[in-house]
Amino acid sequence: MIVRTTAEITDTERDVADAAWRSKRIILAGDGVGFSFHETTINANSVSEFQYRHHVEAVWVVEGSGVLTNLENGDEFKLEPGTMYLLDGHEKHRVTCHEQLRMMCVFNPPVTGKEVHDETGTYPPSILE
């Protein structure tokens, strides 16, 4: 059994941030359960672009508001508490945050915790090898 709190993860190697977002990585590949689980916060009035070419990500919005844009076809979706989105096609996407978003995210395969988004918004494949 694994029990962790976000308080004990804060300001450790499991707490990763840049200017627009912060990811508290609660479950990682090293935990050996086949997925990783994160609490991600995106700052109000920010815009971030991501693409996970090597992962499937499920996101559950629990706080805040914004817009998710599929950059491959232009579709837009309102983000608010209770919204879930699944990036099962490795879609390049943009999150435009109006009010600070807090989201719970699951990655498969699990991330190791050492990943950093590259200039295209994805994790380099060398991290996964």
Automatic annotation (TrEMBL):
Its EC number is 4.2.1.108. The keyword Lyase applies. One of its GO terms (biological process) is ectoine biosynthetic process. It catalyses: (2S)-4-acetamido-2-aminobutanoate = L-ectoine + H2O. Pfam families: Ectoine_synth (PF06339). Catalyzes the circularization of gamma-N-acetyl-alpha,gamma-diaminobutyric acid (ADABA) to ectoine (1,4,5,6-tetrahydro-2-methyl-4-pyrimidine carboxylic acid), which is an excellent osmoprotectant. Belongs to the ectoine synthase family. This is L-ectoine synthase. It comes from Mycolicibacterium chitae.
